[in-house]
DNA sequence: TTGTCAACTGTCAGTCGCTGTCACTAGCCT
DNA sequence: AGGCTAGTGACAGCGACTGACAGTTGACAA
């Protein structure tokens, strides 16, 4: 239903031409991410990237619409997997549970899929760059809002409501994704591993209900 | 507590120099917004703007960090008023009510404050440009996340919790702001007036609880 | 009033992201 | 083997933005 444009570890590679294309594309991707992680996003010029891969600048822009697209290649992959996971949830499940379940379930698939493209550790470093670079954070949030739209449509379909007249799918997804981003953000500020993010995310999701409840009880809702 | 850099309708204007400065600043702001509304954001170059005001490009960049900053001058104003409104809510009020109350309450103040800078109608047109221009939408979302951070701190202070250890303030604010953005977004797609946005926002907020509830009931939650 | 200082502004040159054009190389197919 | 064309590099150009330098003009004191 969607061509993600997998980079490595898929498709048998037919002709020489296509093989070479994939090679330069891969090289551009890897070099870009490594440079972003090392020098930062703004500190990396397109000229730096193409110099490392020995290609002309023009070629870079034939493969990617811009620096930004390179930075979000891996996140795009992860998003598609999440959407698929929600789509594959048991039909009877309440919407909130479906989202939470899909999140927990898709985690390992995502890690695996990412690893086939670039080392997971590199991706995590790039992710922190994304969260800490204003321009990239902005792009990340816009992408997130597009993801929310996709998720809302899936939820709406599951529940048999029209997403254009019933606001509940979008409202639910917006709230959930908002909470997820809070978790991502506070995680990226620290330096813990993937497992920590997973736990932080689900823990925060479980606190959404109580946080909305009228007066906050005084139990320690501490985390971190 | 915060200098917002009001543009028109405040401060008696001391010397001639300052008066002239404000004049060119105002002119740049007005011309920019009018051009954005007329030709779109990307369709408007800085050269277009400075040509309309008869100043050099360099001058434009001395007053504003870039095109983006001009576009968000008015939203920035509104955000500050909202934060102040939350801060001024009665201490005993539960956090969710405080946010909802502040929102309803600050509405008129915001409209009034905006009108003192540019015609409200112009701002609304520019707002639709923001929502429909990818680059501006991204910037808008990033600014929103900064607003969320400010709001979360206010809520944390009101509730007497530490925002760095208790995630509930951020979670609550993220959910609420997420819902608000859903309302803004679906409003900006249509062509109704300010009053419609106000009602849509509060209506959506009231649907947050039910949308999170386990199975969705079949009452018509229709809007629009 | 006049002269000095500092603020404000314009001009110019340059960087970086990105796009259009055009010629050319090298896989691909017959 | 030879033509076709996808993929590429080299080059020119645009728009956002920045730094350096010089000119202009309010502000303020003598």
In short:
The first copy, chain A, is built from 11 helices and no strands. Chain A has 224 residues and is mostly helical. Chain A has 2 domains: 51 residues, Homeodomain-like (Arc Repressor Mutant, subunit A, Orthogonal Bundle), CATH 1.10.10; 141 residues, Tetracycline Repressor, domain 2.
Feature tags:
homodimer, 224 residues, mainly alpha, Arc Repressor Mutant, subunit A, Tetracycline Repressor, domain 2, 2 domains, 71% helix, DNA-binding
Describe the structure.
- 2 copies of one chain form a homodimer.
- The N terminus of chain A is likely disordered.
- Chain A has 224 residues and is mostly helical.
- The termini of chain A are far apart.
- Chain A is 71% helix and 0% strand.
- The first copy, chain A, is globular, with a radius of gyration of 19 Å.
- Chain A has 11 helices and no strands.
- The longest helix of chain A is centred in the middle third of the chain and has 26 residues.
- Chain A has 2 domains: 51 residues, Homeodomain-like (Arc Repressor Mutant, subunit A, Orthogonal Bundle); 141 residues, Tetracycline Repressor, domain 2.
- In chain A, helix 1 packs across helix 7.
- At the A-B interface, helix 6, helix 8, helix 9 and helix 11 of A face helix 6, helix 8, helix 9 and helix 11 of B.
- Chain A binds a DNA duplex (30 and 30 nucleotides) through helix 1 and helix 3.
